[in-house]
User: Fold this.
Amino acid sequence: MTVLPTSLDTTGPDYAAHREAMLAKLAELDAEHAKALSGGGEKYVERHRRRGKLLARERVELLLDPDTPFLELSPLAAWGSEYAVGASIVTGIGVVEGVECVITANDPTVRGGASNPWTLKKALRANEIALTNRLPCISLVESGGADLPAQKEIFIPGGALFRDLTRLSAAGIPTVAVVFGNSTAGGAYVPGMSDHVIMVKERAKVFLGGPPLVRMATGEEADDESLGGAEMHARVSGLADHFAVDERDALRQARRVVARLNHRKAYADPVRVVPPRYDEDELLGIVPGDLRTPFDPREVIARIVDGSDFDEFKPLYGTSLVTGWAGLHGYPVGVLANARGVLFSAESQKAAQFIQLANQRDVPLLFLHNTTGYMVGKEYEQGGIIKHGALMINAVSNSRVPHLSVLMGASYGAGHYGMCGRAYDPRFLFAWPGAKSAVMGPQQLAGVLSIVARQSAAAKGQPYDEEGDAALRAMVEQQIESESLPMFLSGRLYDDGVIDPRDTRTVLGLCLSAIHTAPYEGVRGGFGVFRM
Assistant:
């Protein structure tokens, strides 16, 4: 039998403490998500409604098929910056007329939907997901263009948005623009470069230069409607393919456009899906609040994979890394999960072999992070930890099957790389609310700086300031602690969202379904030189 047993004591004090700590983190996360949902605040939301307009997420909801999920991506973008949480744009994956699509929607309640640097990063990430997974891209447009005070950070890299639209189209991936309001200056190229364009009567305004700019540049007097209104573009310029009488009509027409795309998935959806044998709610009590305390990742695997069925690979070798085969919402996956944090030589070699096998079988890989990195020390350096760690990182880097990553606990140092962190292009990466990621743990990093400073003082023959050292360590620990938190990292788009552990199976299932829209094939040999 390959069904995982469980030894989780849901009545014990450890489980209760872990659950309480996780619920506290989830309450903090809910508060931050509420900021994104509130957009520009009550005043601007109310003003938008008085104009008879739908909010960004309301537009998305009406676009989607009824009772289907929407996987919102990067909802905490711009967290901790001077800009509103959410970065004035909503992005995600949803089903429209049975077709999985990437959807982006400007939030006009935040500075008129103007794009700031984090808006750009978030939109580019959505385009990347659409291109990699061959998902049609629907843009719900209402934006005043670039947030001008930040233009120096937007103008030059912002051209990639239009490049992406043309590349999507060239790759045969449909692009649809629905224009609800302003789409001016550079923003006019979003409908201009989309395959299908829908504009709302007396609302859409699409022009390279508005009436004030035209007057300054040419002396010509023109109003919004004659210069760039929906009816003009439908009757005269030909930019609008469909003319909508109101927002709901525009969304109805967008659904009809998608229904006629004839866009097909590369792989059929699974016919039979078996739920895990154990309650997903129990995921709240597995990971300790103190990430230095180890936990068994099999307890997590048992609550997210189909039937809790897991064929473990090399269970007696490299036991700090759990590897094995499973199904998730009917899709085959290979799982790599950290068991005791540290990666040794055996774990690294085991991972490299497992990744090669997954590529031979064309099986996607799921990385469940809880690692402090590769082991250090004289014995391990002499034993070849560098070349063995490089072996694992090489395998991850050159693997061609889709990768998914979930940060459950710690994800420090090169272990973050070996477990397919953001820099290694996983198709999707999510974090749990208690996860942390940095060069190393706060205490270790502060201690290293203290040792270096102490050695420097000794080399100069100077007395060492112990009080100053204590203050330095405290300051560094606080800084690294705050910078390693998932909301900080999610704000910088180093993940695709911070999720409730109980939603892990659902989120991964949605991602796997999206991944299987595009064909993929594992590498059969080209891993580069493995240092043995």
